Amino acid sequence: MSLRIDDIAGEVLGRAGDARRFLIAVAGPPGAGKSTMADNLAAALKARGESAEVLPMDGFHMDNAILIERGLLARKGIPETFDVRGFLDIIHAVRAADQEVLVPVFDRSRELAIASARPIDPKDRFIIVEGNYLLFTQGKWAELDGVFDFSIMLAPPIEVLEERLWARWRGYNLDEEAASAKVYGNDLPNGRLILENRRPADVTLEIALA
After folding, report:
1. Which string of b and e fits 189-210 if b means at least 16 CB within 10 Å?
2. Which residues contact 65 (CB under 8 A, 6 or more apart)?
């Protein structure tokens, strides 16, 4: 039987038992469908009477001014272009579930993170964290090992990622040259890095479930 989002939600609920706070990782390369998967899983949990919130890792992008200064603007999205320490601090604060935690959200249309843009309430039982490097085995990202109670890895074939990434950047009105630079100079190399350096997940999928 093929998996559906309700199947994943049921497995999550079974794992969670009576836990007051349960952290779920939705990881994968750029263009894998992480945001869609996270939102769909949150909706499925809420439909079962649970409280759930999505925490996107993209809110921890370094500001473009810092990336320009460091010569990394063209590689925005690689592991070194995120505030990893800040992200780890937020994850540990969210894990504690003893106070409201305000988290940043990334506005892709403006290519900037908006601080304190989403509240995580201590009463939110399920926190679905989505991002590229949640299961990454290199650098400080490896400190996330053991933090999540359940993990989902989205790992579409490279050909599928390529098609989705082209659609993404054309959707932001980039010309062919600029879109090509994003896809082949940054996003696909990042995708391969993520797929080749990941911890095992509880569930690995090629598509984001609906």
Report:
1. bbbebbbebbbebbbebeebbe
2. none
Residue with tokens 């409201």: 100
**Residues 183, 162 contacting (CB under 8 angstroms):** yes
In this structure, are residues 203 and 9 in contact, taking their beta carbons and an 8 Å threshold? no
- What beta strand segments (E) does 49-192 contain? 52-56, 101-107, 112-120, 126-131, 150-154
pTM: 0.94
CB under 8 Å to 46, separation ≥6 — which residues? 52
β-strand partners of 24: 128, 150
Average confidence (pLDDT) per 10 residues, the chain, 210 residues: 82 97 97 95 97 97 96 95 97 97 92 93 97 98 98 95 93 91 94 96 86
